[in-house]
Amino acid sequence: MDSISLNGNKQTPEDFELQTKLKASGRIPEHIAIIMDGNGRWAKTKGNIRIFGHKAGVDSVRDATEVCAQLGVKYLTLYAFSTENWRRPSAEVSALMNLLVQALRRETKKLNENDIRLNAIGQIERFPKQCQKQLAEALEITKDNNRMQLCLALSYSGRWDITQAVRKIADAVKSGDINPEDIDDNLINDHLVTADIPDPDLIIRTSGEFRISNFLLWQLAYSELYITNTFWPDFRRDELYKAIESYQKRERRFGKISEQVAETSSST
Ligand code: IPE
Ligand code: IPE
Ligand code: MG
């Protein structure tokens, strides 16, 4: 199965060509993570209420998922709801929860048909029961899929993630399963909720804010950042292509100097 469609439309030949060029011009990131911001402001520019923007944002999620799967991205992580977002007016929070349930109901079948596995990270137990049930169902249905993993960060924050890892490690030390000297980068990594996911290569933030807002704090150590002024509901495939083009032009040195990086990339 090669062609991928989440919206029921066939890919246009022009789009196929753009993707072929992008694949030829450099590396496609293995893991893209997106801070989907600007739904409220987008709605405001249309003279509408915030939830209108969240609804429109679902279409951008579908498009980003489809494009990433078509390009061969293996992991797409979407920041959908932060720990701090619980502080929003309760009407907005419950509207977001309803939207999540609706989207899962509507989209799971298509994800499954396209061999996409859904994953979720965060304090899922804080969500309303119906949300948890819908989510568990979608995770179960898609669990054996291999083309790409779509990971939703829900009631997630980087500090929460690090804190829960520290707790688990402290417990293991207390019970004598590990010694404090055993604690290193890898061990910490293995206790984060992203243990099975490689660190993001590219982090995109929409709506022009130059901040991380408590996203993948540990995991982003060497991620490339791309910030666009476009609000999330307007972020469609052309924008994603631009972000990947920008990523392809970066030199990822991981602390080394340029000459060393050139040496390793020419010998591989
Ligand atoms: C991002 O859009 C979606 C969530 C955080 C749930 P916002 O709702 O933050 O939109 P702005 O930033 O207020 O425009
Ligand atoms: C970040 O957006 C969280 C999500 C996109 C889910 P926010 O809108 O919550 O971030 P701040 O408050 O502007 O930093
Ligand atoms: Mg925002």
Structure description:
- With 268 residues, this protein is an alpha/beta fold.
- It has one domain (27-157, 198-266): Decaprenyl diphosphate synthase-like (Undecaprenyl pyrophosphate synthetase, 3-Layer(aba) Sandwich), CATH 3.40.1180.
- It contains nine helices and six strands, in the order αβααβαβαβααββαα.
- Strand 3, helix 5 and strand 4 (148-156) form a beta-alpha-beta unit.
- Helix 2 crosses helix 3 (50-71) and helix 3 runs parallel beside helix 4.
- The mean pLDDT is 97.
- The structure holds 3-methylbut-3-enyl trihydrogen diphosphate (2 copies) and magnesium ion.
- Residues 36-41, 81, 85, 96, 207, 232 line the site of one 3-methylbut-3-enyl trihydrogen diphosphate.
Second rung of CATH, namely the architecture: 3-Layer(aba) Sandwich
Bin the helical content: 40-55%
- From the spread of the alpha carbons, the general shape counts as globular
Described by strand count, sense and barrel closure, the largest sheet is:
6 strands, parallel
The fold-level CATH name is Undecaprenyl pyrophosphate synthetase
Return residue spans where pLDDT drops below 50 for at least 5 consecutive residues: none
Structural class comes to: alpha/beta
Q: TL;DR?
A:
The protein has 268 residues and is an alpha/beta fold. The protein has helices at 13-25, 39-45, 50-71, 90-113, 129-141, 158-174, 185-191, 237-248, 258-267; strands at 31-35, 75-82, 116-121, 148-156, 202-205, 224-227.
